[in-house]
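Lecture 7 notes: from sequence to structure.
We start with the chain below.
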Amino acid sequence: MKTIKIGSRDSRLAVCQAQEVLNRLGGGTLTTMKTLGDKILDRTLDKVGGKGLFVKELDQALLDGRIDLAVHSLKDVPMELPEGLTLMAFPPRADARDALVLPESGVWDQTKPIGCSAARRQAQLGALFPEIEVRPVRGNVQTRLAKLEAGQYGALVLAAAGLTRLGLSHRISRVFTPEEMLPAAGQGILAVEGRAGEWAEETRLLDDASARACAMAERAFVRTLDGGCFSPIAAYAETGEGLLHLRGLYVTGEGRAVRGALTGACDSAETLGRTLALQLKWEAEGRI
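Predicted C-alpha cells for the same chain:
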C-alpha cells in the first residue's frame, strides 16, 4: 500500500496536531513547511491578507501532489477552498475554550496589556476587563509566551486546546466559559484537507460525527456573516442526543454586540448556522 504523505506547518503545535492524525492513520510520513503567515510577524493578519496565509503553501503542495493530506487547525482554514480540494475529516474535538495565561511568577500585572490575536477575543475581553488594555500579539505559542515573560504583556489569552496539545496545560491560569468568551468557529477542531476523491476510506476512519456537525454549523454561521479572522464573530456548537445547540456572537462595525442561540437536528447543522447568523444580523440592523 502506498505510504500516505501528511503536510503541516512547521510550528511545534502544528507538528503535534499532524502527529495526532498520523497516529490515528497508523503511520505515514510528515512534511512540514513555513507558511507566509508564520513569516510575517510584525503586522496583524488583517494587514497582510488574512487567514489564508496559514494554508496557501499547504494547499499548493496538495495540488502539486507533494503531499496527500494537510492537517490544519480548523479556525485557520478560509471559508472557500481551492478547486479540487476539500475538508475530508474532522477528528474528535478537543477543548474549545479560551484560556488565560499569566507569567510563570503567577502575578498578573494589570497595568500591562492582555495579549491576544483575534478581534473576537479583543471585543469580549473589553467587556470582561474594561479597565485593562488589550493589544494584539503575533507568533507561535512559544513566541507569545516569551513575550509574556519579557514583560511586554501582563497576560495572554490562548486556545486551551493548543496549550494542552503542547503539554503546557499547567500554564493555564483559568479557562473562560462560553458565556464569558465565546470561542472562535472551529476552535479545538482539526481539519484534514485533501484532494477530492482520494484517500476517502482512510480519512473516513478519522471523522467524528459530532466534530463534523459542529464544524459545519460554525463555519456556516461565519460564512453567512462574511467573517474572517479579524472580524468580531464567534460561534460555538455542542451536540447531544441527536441535537445541535449553536451559540453565536456578531459585533457590528459600530461596535454593537448581539448574541443568540439556536437548537436543531445535527443533520441540519449548516442550516442552523445560516439561520442564526441571519437572525443576529437582522437584530443588529434593527430589522427584528
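Points to note: The chain is about 30% helix and 25% strand. The radius of gyration is 19 Å.
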